[in-house]
Amino acid sequence: MQKKARDPDNFEIKLDAQLCFAIYGAAHAFTRTYKPLLEPLGLTYPQYLVMITLWEEDDQPVKAIGDRLGLDSGTLSPLLKRLEQSGLVARKRDRDDERQVRISLTAKGDELRHQATGVAEAIGKAVGCGLEGAVALRDELIALKQRLTKAGE
Amino acid sequence: MQKKARDPDNFEIKLDAQLCFAIYGAAHAFTRTYKPLLEPLGLTYPQYLVMITLWEEDDQPVKAIGDRLGLDSGTLSPLLKRLEQSGLVARKRDRDDERQVRISLTAKGDELRHQATGVAEAIGKAVGCGLEGAVALRDELIALKQRLTKAGE
DNA sequence: CGCAATTCAATTGCGCACAATCTAATTACG
DNA sequence: CGTAATTAGATTGTGCGCAATTGAATTGCG
Fold first, then answer.
1. Among A24, A108, A153, B150, which residue is least crowded by beta carbons within 10 Å?
2. Nucleotides of chain D within 7 Å of a protein C-beta?
3. What is the CATH number of the domain that holds B143?
4. Helical packing angle, A131-151 and B8-38, nearest 10°
């Protein structure tokens, strides 16, 4: 017990735990920051992410959205039904490949894009660091994610 | 439409979206990396986080664990019952303040600490960056979280 | 002391996440 | 051609995450 930070095992475990907590906490802080901003739009955070992908490119199959966000049909199917219920998207089977369900924006869903600009601005302020800081953080997180997913083959 | 990255609004929105995706993806990549490592221990990722806090300090009330992890009783109550079911923790009312339920490690729960050292090592490898990189990332994430939570008062 | 306000956990309800399973449609291959 | 393998999406079941409510215990204040 006389060795403290000297013990590499113990140090790694502590650091691992701290990194756990940090990622976990930051992700939740993010969703909590978004929640009140998205409430007026009637969107949850995952729903907002789906809408962003559709604003970037309309009329995508469920699979494409899932690949973009790393979500499977078990998550997206009910989520998209709720967006359909809200009148923001339409779901129709692809004529050429009837296995696919293509998700497209309704007029209302497309309109929402404009109201969402305020959300991004508010987040920009909340993140606090300048643009360079945000860019750097984004790139680090992307790199971290790639290392993690690569490590799992 | 002729202005592209020049448009500050549009740039902020895109960056905001990218930071969203990055945090979201990194957090999920983390849990996915942990999942196969924790499966032999019979723990989920949030359960692992709870166990870490108990390994750091045993016999804590639910509230203290919740403060440490940013979780409320709605999440912790059923989670702790499952840990109790697994025989890893015990739940007993505090004699001095019967509102509190103190969570303590069982012998089995304490033992698990040793098996968990392998998990931390594997994660250290998967994170890929050296110790300095991990430390830097941890500090950035902690700072980000603090800015986000502070922004929401 | 006695009552109101506060605190701690538990519960309920909704919405993700994800594994496993299922159905239907498409593609590949002998 | 026809069957096997693959692919897309839906469904089911388990486990978070959180808001809102409830109930019991404690604290604060007149």
1. A153
2. 7-13, 15-20, 23-27
3. 1.10.10.10
4. 30
